[in-house]
Amino acid sequence: MNDFGTVIAPGTVRIERSLPGPIERVWDYLTESGKRASWLASGEMDQRVGGSVELVFHNSELTRNDEPPPAKYAQYAGESRMSGTITACEPPHLLAYTWGKESEVRFELRAQGDRVQLVVTHSRLPDRNTMLSVASGWHVHLGILIDRIEGREPPGFWATHTRLEAEYARRMPAD
Q1: Is the pLDDT reported for residue 144 higher than 70?
Q2: Is the four-CA dihedral 66, 72, 74, 80 of positive or negative sign?
Q3: What pLDDT digit, counting tens, does each position of 1-16 carry?
Q4: C-alpha distance from residue 80 to each of 9, 60, 118 (Å)
Q5: What local confidence, expressed as pLDDT, does residue 1 receive?
Q6: What radius of gyration do the chain's Cα atoms show?
Q7: Average pLDDT of span 105-130
Q8: Would you list the DSSP string of 59-96?
Q9: Cβ neighbours of residue 141 closer than 8 Å, sequence gap 6 or more
Q10: Is it the case that residue 175 has pLDDT exceeding 90?
């Protein structure tokens, strides 16, 4: 499996990970506010199509031993919020919701023995810069998720995001 996300269509990034199971535990990390807060964002989620999703990010508090965010992300140093609407919900295999007003994120889970294959597809991204930010963001957030499930201390969020965004800029073709 390629660790890096790939562009699978215009404005669409896909990233895959293998996580320790069972699938219900991974589903809980996607849907329960407290567990989701440990790797992405807290917030309520009404798990039904048409239900609301509230994401409350504290990226600067996700990990220890971090750097401050780069200047272009300084506005996200503290709390930031985003809301969306559930577009698909089939526990514990499929969850999709709008990501703000413009894009959509889709999580697909498949049990593979004692592991879970997680596929994250983020679509309707408006431009390359957004795709670079989103791809590196999902990459670091999913790394934190795996570290949390496996009981490891994850590396600093912003330091890792900065390094990954530079690598995605090198790998992702310009328009």
Answers
A1: yes
A2: negative
A3: 469 999 999 999 999 9
A4: 28, 11, 25
A5: 45
A6: 15
A7: 97
A8: GGGSSSS-PPPPGGGGGGSS-EEEEEEEEEEETTTEEE
A9: 39, 40
A10: no
The neighbour count for residue 106, using CB atoms within 10 Å, is 18
Per-residue pLDDT averaged across 93-105, rounded? 96
Please name the residue ranges forming H helices in the chain: 23-31, 33-37, 128-149, 157-171
Helix (H) or strand (E) holding 9, with range, is: strand 6-9
Helix (H) or strand (E) holding 153: none
Decide yes or no: CATH 3.40.190.10 for domain 6-171.
no
For the chain, domain boundaries: 6-171
Identity of the amino acid at 78: G
Over the stretch 38-61, which tens digit does the pLDDT of each residue have? Answer: 999 999 999 999 999 999 999 999
Query: What are the structure tokens assigned to 84, written together?
Result: 């969306």
